Amino acid sequence: KRVLILNGPNLNLLGTREKSIYGADTLADIEALCRAACEKAGLACDFRQSNHEGELVDWIQSARRTADAIIINPAAYSHTSVAIHDALRAAEKPVVEVHLSNIHQREAFRHHSYVSAVAVGVICGFGPKGYTLAIEAAADILN
Ligand code: DQA
């Protein structure tokens, strides 16, 4: 089985961006963590990042054919994107939402996510470990 792991805008800056909130790990570090966790769980891993909402929508649409589950950190688009919500709903695949930070502890505009309503579950506040937990959850759902 194959899992598509999507990362939204500005996550390419991890490791340099607001380290006190997001930690020192780079996106490449998180990708390595995900590849190891997927291998352990017996899942093939497709790991991507985009700063563009439409590109994320295109990737979610193609996941209809190419993935069995979607793990997504939609970043700022969590709080704004009906398009990503609709694409995830149309994909008809199990979705696990991840955030590095605890969005509920932060500004009010981060408390609502359009993605949560189409996710099986949400993991937030555990940093990069959240991706590992999401992969374990996806593996459980798929097995
Ligand atoms: C984030 C939280 C979002 O509110 C923010 O816009 C991000 C990252 C997280 O992983 O904690 O870019 O999704």
UniProtKB/TrEMBL annotation:
One of the record's GO molecular function terms: 3-dehydroquinate dehydratase activity
Gene3D superfamilies: Dehydroquinase, class II (3.40.50.9100)
Catalyzed reactions per annotation: 3-dehydroquinate = 3-dehydroshikimate + H2O
Top-rank taxon: Bacteria
Active site: 22, 99
PROSITE patterns, per database record: DEHYDROQUINASE_II (PS01029)
EC number: 4.2.1.10
Reported function: Catalyzes a trans-dehydration via an enolate intermediate.
CDD domains: DHQase_II
Keywords assigned: Amino-acid biosynthesis, Aromatic amino acid biosynthesis, Lyase
Pathway: Metabolic intermediate biosynthesis; chorismate biosynthesis; chorismate from D-erythrose 4-phosphate and phosphoenolpyruvate: step 3/7
InterPro entries tied to this protein: DHquinase_II, DHquinase_II_CS, DHquinase_II_sf
Site (Transition state stabilizer): 17
Residues binding substrate: 73, 79, 86, 100-101, 110
HAMAP family recorded: AroQ
Name by which UniProt lists this protein: 3-dehydroquinate dehydratase
Example GO biological process: quinate catabolic process
